[in-house]
Amino acid sequence: MKNPFEKNDHKVLIAGIVIGSVVIGAAAYLFLTETGASVRGELAGHFNRMRSALIGDDIEPLTDAPHTGSKSKASKKKAKGPANDENSGGEVGNG
Question: Rounded to an integer, what distance in angstroms lies between the CA atom of residue 41 and that of residue 77?
Answer without folding.
Answer: 34
